[in-house]
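User: Could you go from structure to sequence for me? I need the amino acid at each position, not a summary. Structure tokens:
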């Protein structure tokens, strides 16, 4: 599967153009099957570098690259895929989903200790 189509390249704002926007639009989503790793892109440099939300061990905003996503190998040799059904969503909605889950997980860990 091609991770980044020409259509998505055109839809992604240039890197640094949304840095002062409080709640930018997440344009596309990549994920590694059978893991918790997901990458949400809000900006792209037109070549290799994305900026967005990375949900892995500790969800955070940061940079990630297309070339790295293409090289990642997960369980059973699976590679990173693009969510073809992802609808552009405000970053706040994505963050809320992951950060509230992380809080719930922490509470559950405390209850079992």
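Assistant: Here is the amino acid at each position, in order:
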């Amino acid at each position: 599967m091609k991770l980044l189509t020409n259509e998505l390249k055109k839809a992604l704002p240039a890197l640094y153009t949304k840095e002062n926007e409080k709640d930018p639009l997440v344009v596309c989503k990549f994920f590694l099957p059978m893991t918790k790793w997901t990458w949400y892109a809000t900006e792209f440099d037109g070549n290799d570098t994305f900026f967005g939300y990375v949900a892995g061990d500790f969800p955070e905003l940061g940079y990630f690259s297309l070339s790295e996503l293409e090289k990642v190998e997960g369980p059973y040799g699976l590679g990173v895929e693009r969510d073809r059904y992802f609808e552009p969503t405000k970053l706040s909605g994505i963050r809320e989903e992951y950060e509230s889950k992380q809080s719930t997980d922490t509470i559950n860990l405390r209850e079992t200790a």
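One structural detail worth keeping in mind: Confidence is low (pLDDT under 50) at residues 106-112.
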